[in-house]
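Section 3.1: Structural characterization of target chains.
Under the original work plan, the team committed to producing a structural model for every single-chain target entering the pipeline before any wet-lab resources were allocated. The record below documents one such target. The sequence was received from the expression subgroup and is listed exactly as submitted; it comprises 273 residues.
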Amino acid sequence: MPLSCLRRFVNAPLVIVFWMLWGSDIAASAERPTGNARIAVAANFRNTAEAIALHLEARSDYRYDIIVGSTGKLASQVINGAPFDVLMAADRVRPQRLVEEGYAVAGSQRTYALGELGLWWPGAGELFAVGDLSMLNPREVCLANPALAPYGSAALTVLREAGFSERYLAGLVRVDNVNLVTAMVTQRQVRAGFIARSALVIAAKRDTVQMDETEILWFSDHEPIHQALVLLDHAQHNPAAHFWVEQIDHPAVRELIRADGYQLRPLESVGGG
């Protein structure tokens, strides 16, 4: 037998063994698309978004960067050219506006969570009402900035419906986002604040907040806060961003959202925001 043939004969089993050991993994790796996406997230949804990112990264080769801020600031950054791929807002208005103005992909917006507003007033006693805040100096009451944060806008509506004067409302302590309200009340920098249910659920999980449910007035009879996402124009051809948007409706992801204190819309009514 010629030497060259002998070499091929000897090496062939080695090639077969190599393919048996590593070939299937190489093929599987080649089939898993890779890429990164930048997800701009309303502050109240930060912890949940981070949990979703870990879940999706464990099931793909995609990687996600979570950028956090108030909805208003994030939307403004999109308009000014920030390279975000998905916006997860705390309202439906800004995602729709970004679509209308050409900054986001038409038809990609959808409601991913329903948030609930509450008034947290430690030491107020049981069965207090919104109107009882009139006993406090407005500098003792905190809300997220209504111009930037949907939870703050909802709080302002509640106060106006309760009959508070514009002078009183102008004196309220305003912070960038609803998570900061929880921190302000926890640190006793204010006596009462309008918070998101999700913030207290997450804080309770981490045992970072001591609270009594009788200290919180939930506005369950009000319209929930519809939090919508939208695929941004920057990400039209980004598979990692598309994967994020698609997986928001997956049962495992929806359970992560529900477990953090949000309500969920039925799947048949999720699309379109």
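Strands lie at 34-42, 61-69, 86-88, 110-115, 117-120, 141-144, 173-175, 192-196, 216-218, 225-231.
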